[in-house]
Amino acid sequence: MAADFEKQSYWHHRFETETAFEWLTSSSAFMDVLAPQLTKLPSDARILHLGPGTSDLHNQLRQRGFLNVTNIDYEPLALERGQQLERDRFGDVRMEYLVADVTQLELKPVHRVAIDKGTADAVACGPADAVLSMAKAIHCCLDSDGFWVSLSYSASRFEGVRSFFEVEVASRIPTPKLKPTDPDIYLYCYLLRPKRDVAY
Any idea where the Methyltransferase type domain is (predicted)? Predict the structure, then answer.
């Protein structure tokens, strides 16, 4: 049976023992994909890191000089793990950690970037309109030049949000093969730019 990724209880139970895990690909590999977008940003750009879990992606962002990062997860244990990972790496905690549901964000439209690594995939395990709700919430958080970068295993993850986001596959990341004859399987890095003056 598939894991109950949409349930907070699943993540609470998981994070009681899990201290570090990377979804889909390593954070350092994902940072290589993000680099063309991040190099255009000032170091004080406001960044939303959505559903960090026990990834060290936030540390990768800090390593590159981004401190104005808000890590959002609806499981408090994930944020405790994130703070510990930051403290272990840098000796202090300077980023923000916020308990919130990514499908129901209530933040000001001041963020330049939203980033998720597999979070939209987990959200998609919930109700049929969950990814749409997540996209609407993110749309409201981005500033006029903002954008959303999402890493997904799905080649059609964001078909339902094109009415208010310009959706582009920025890159495809090949997954490792166990045998040379295995089929080519990719991860998809999406770049989503919000359309303005749209009605939900």
Answer: 48-108
Copy the structure tokens of residue 96.
């923000």
Handedness of CA 33, 36, 41, 42 (dihedral sign): positive
Chain centroid to Cα 145, Å, comes to 18
pLDDT digits (tens, 9 = 90+) for 23-81: 899 999 999 999 999 998 999 999 999 999 999 999 999 999 999 999 999 999 999 99
0.90 exceeded by the pTM?
yes
CATH number of the domain within which 57 lies: 3.40.50.150
Q: Which long-range contacts (CB under 8 A, 24 or more apart) does 32-40 make?
A: 33/151, 33/170, 33/171, 33/173, 33/189, 34/115, 34/149, 36/170, 37/113, 37/147, 37/149, 37/170, 37/191, 38/64, 38/66, 38/113
d(CA 12, CA 112): 30
Query: Whole domain around residue 183: which residue ranges?
Result: 8-194
Span 158-178, mean pLDDT? 93
